[in-house]
Amino acid sequence: MAAPLDLDQLQSFCAIADCGSFTEAARRVNKTQSAVSMQIKRLEERLGHSLLTRDGRTVALTHHGEVLYERARKMLRTNAEILDHFNDGDLAGSIRFGVPDDYAVRLLPVILSSFQRTHPKIVVDVSCMASEHLLEGMRAGRYDLIVFTQGTEQNFGELFRTEKMFWVASHGGRALASEPIAIACGPQYCIWRKDAMDALERSNTDYRIAYTSSNATAISSAVLSDLAIGFLPESALQPGMRVVSDNRGLPPLPDAQMALMRGSHAYGGIYDALATHIVQSMGNLERPIEAEAAE
């Protein structure tokens, strides 16, 4: 019977795949770069295939590397689950967590505050910024766990919520009647902006981009101040906003997807505790009553 694969080698391999660098991976797994290189060499010899390609400072997965990466992640997760099962100690430690600021107004006070009450020994350091920046930070090793809003195009984005996107305006405001319609939205790399602009173009709706910001609070402020209308997913709606009804002629928007992404080390223990809490809490998060009203 063949001997089992070395989990330590798989951990180093996944770390390289995550960050695209032997140097950074060595730092993450607390080994020297030469030790990590030797691990990968032995893993490739064991499997009989090249797993990584090197082009200068860039490291990428081969086809066989991509196949192994998915399965190695599963093995690391299973290993963490087994260790958790036999660990009777209290969960304690720190988590570097990133969340899009679109959700910060509701996610932080409602979900993270309740997590801190039920897990007082787990310290969560939170960063709020655009999904694109969070994904870059994950690759650079700045986060253990992030929520992002681009679905699961990225490796190991765990889709956990799909929700309706709404056109929103200020209660009692007149921005919706402007010609062309004034829109408040994120920068060009924002996936929600792209979806909304595509929908407006297909429906031949006359509009102008009146306010652009990478800060979700600034966009919401423009909507609440009746300077423009905007678009938000259900869980990001705020009191003072109204959902624009379908009969106002604005095109329907694609659903928004929320996903979790973990570092290759972030399985089991404190990481599963936070991930489970977020998924369960988001499933129970209701839309604000004031945002229910449609024109």
Strand order of the largest sheet: 4-3-5-12-6
What value does the Rg take, in angstroms? 22 Å
Distance between the termini: 69 Å
Overall shape: elongated
Concise synopsis of the structure shown:
Helices cover 41% and strands 22% of the residues. The protein contains 9 helices and 12 strands. The strands form 4 sheets. Strands 4-3-5-12-6 form a 5-stranded mixed sheet, with helices on both faces. Strands 10-7-11 form a 3-stranded antiparallel sheet, covered by helices on one side. The protein has a two-stranded antiparallel ribbon with strand order 1-2.
Provide an overview of this structure:
This protein has helices at 7-19, 22-28, 33-47, 63-85, 101-118, 131-139, 191-202, 216-224, 269-283, and strands at 52-55, 58-61, 93-99, 122-128, 145-148, 157-163, 165-170, 181-185, 207-212, 230-233, 241-243, 256-262. With 295 residues, the chain is α/β, with parallel strands linked by helices. The strands form 4 sheets. Strands 4-3-5-12-6 form a 5-stranded mixed beta sheet, with helices on both faces. Strands 10-7-11 form a 3-stranded antiparallel beta sheet, with helices on one face. Strands 1-2 form a two-stranded antiparallel ribbon. The chain is elongated, with a radius of gyration of 22 Å. Mean pLDDT is 88; it is low at 288-295.
